[in-house]
Amino acid sequence: MEEFNVGVVGAGYVGLVTGACLAHVGHRVRCVDKNEARVAELAEGRVPIYEPGLEELVARGRKRLSFSTDLPGAVRDSDVLFIAVDTPPGEGGSADLSSVGAVARSVGRALAEAERERAREKPLVVVNKSTVPVGSGDYVSMLVREGAQEVDGGNVPYRVVSNPEFLREGSAVYDSLFPDRIVLGAEKRDALDTMRALYQPIVEQSFPTQLDPRPRDAVPFVTTDLASAEMIKYAANAFLATKISFINEMAALCELVGADVTNVATGIGLDDRIGARFLNAGIGWGGSCFPKDVAALRAVAREYGHEPALLDATVSVNERQRKAVIQKLQRDLRTLKGKRVALLGLAFKPNTDDLREAPSLEIARLVNSLGARVVGYDPVAGKGAAAMLPDLKVVFDPYEALAGAHAAVVVTEWEEVRSLDPEKAASLMEDPKLLVDGRNVLDPAAALDAGLLYRGFGRG
Ligand code: NAD
Ligand code: UGA
């Protein structure tokens, strides 16, 4: 395989996983972050985020993986430089590109400075992995050029590639080593050739692993222009969010007509054209990406004078799901004043410590505002949640959360929550022992037998 010198700017969920995986498959990687504390921690071998398998991968890759705050050094020494910084929601929901822009400009300056010392043999491939709206590739290219001009006005050799990321938190290492596809957008063919060579070990799965690869011959490349690659990323997230909102719409109808949405999901999901995944009804989608990416796509649509009716509906169904939790609590508890409500799981999904746009936060605020005391359990994200919500009492044992609770809400389907013992839960809870299963993961019959008042989403 051809070994590359790779720089990854932004050592967060995406950058760190990307860097560790590229080092694991044989490249030399330097991860750069402006957060000095984060870099110092990583340099000592501590991984600042919770992501299964990542700590081990970072430890094993240490010979080929380094961490630094030195962006110019990474630009000078890299063949390929990934931008994997945050693109949070900005004004009116549009993506805030200030981190991406700052990096692009610094890359231009550093490239021009490095060129003064020694001319590069091949252009630097600047790869945008952050999720950005259409046109951002051109924007990055312009800022690199402007940054270079600030130094000496000359032309610097670089290419811009869009390589959107599709990893899921909680299985980020697996998704990066065994992706469904690799999307590459560029205007120049030589940059695509470099990217294909860089990803070859992943495409051929020629690296040591104890993980079970996805059953397929090779990972497909989708090579396209910059704009289409950028659009693919937003379209993928918007489609997945819409799929979840669709099944939540069906769940609401199931409740009215007396059907069970979990059976409906099984029945439609076996159709290959529909597919079984992302049909779990419940409290709806959250996280660092679906909310902000759907918002950014809606903002782009409006910028162009298009009313994104389907995306608007996707969001309003999702907002309704959060309110449905409160309605289910009110229906059986009547008033929430003075009641104790346990939230089982706080992270936006299992196997992550990420609380960005976590449904738990909104539910906790709403329940609290109605006068109930809220106790939250999460095996990993508890401390973070306590720091964000001062009124939330956080415990680290699910049964401690249930003790004395009038109602419990399954918010995040951690294994510890899925495997809850209904008898033990019922023995600890106060009447009416209401269990709102916000993820439809518990067995209604076992819960009812144990004396819990079970309420799922769309389960008849
Ligand atoms: P993150 O907030 O976890 O990490 C971003 C990192 O970039 C931080 O460590 C920050 O300090 C660093 N940074 C910001 N500006 C910098 C600068 N000027 N120089 C150096 N470092 C800088 O973000 P994330 O979750 O990894 O997401 C990164 C991008 O990837 C976003 O655009 C996101 O939409 C996209 N994405 C995220 C996921 C995910 O699951 N988290 C999946 C696919 C795509
Ligand atoms: C999502 C996408 O799945 C990734 O492909 C993408 O790269 C990433 O966003 C991103 O752009 O950041 P992630 O947010 O980590 O990944 O998590 P998901 O597993 O997609 O779950 C998102 C939300 O949807 C969670 O709150 C989850 O609980 C909810 N969800 C998911 C449901 O409510 N029902 C489902 O059937 C599936």
Automatic annotation (TrEMBL):
Domain UDP-glucose/GDP-mannose dehydrogenase C-terminal, residue spans: 342-444
* Keyword NAD found: yes
Residue positions of the active site: 289 (nucleophile)
Q: What catalytic reaction does the record list?
A: UDP-alpha-D-glucose + 2 NAD(+) + H2O = UDP-alpha-D-glucuronate + 2 NADH + 3 H(+)
Q: Kindly state which keywords UniProt assigns to this record, in alphabetical order.
A: NAD, Oxidoreductase
Signal peptide interval: none
User: EC number(s) in its UniProt entry?
Assistant: 1.1.1.22
> Its pathway?
Nucleotide-sugar biosynthesis; UDP-alpha-D-glucuronate biosynthesis; UDP-alpha-D-glucuronate from UDP-alpha-D-glucose: step 1/1
Keyword NAD assigned to the entry: answer is: yes
Which named protein is this?
Answer: UDP-glucose 6-dehydrogenase
TM region(s), chain numbering: none
Question: Biological process (GO) annotations?
Answer: polysaccharide biosynthetic process; UDP-glucuronate biosynthetic process
A GO MF label: UDP-glucose 6-dehydrogenase activity
Family of the protein in this entry: Belongs to the UDP-glucose/GDP-mannose dehydrogenase family.
Quick one: which residues bind substrate? 166-169, 233, 278-282, 286, 349
Classification via InterPro entries: 6-PGluconate_DH-like_C_sf, NAD(P)-bd_dom_sf, UDP-Glc/GDP-Man, UDP-Glc/GDP-Man_DH_C, UDP-Glc/GDP-Man_DH_C_sf, UDP-Glc/GDP-Man_DH_dimer, UDP-Glc/GDP-Man_DH_N, UDPglc_DH_bac
Q: Which residues bind NAD(+)?
A: 33, 38, 87, 131, 169, 292, 356
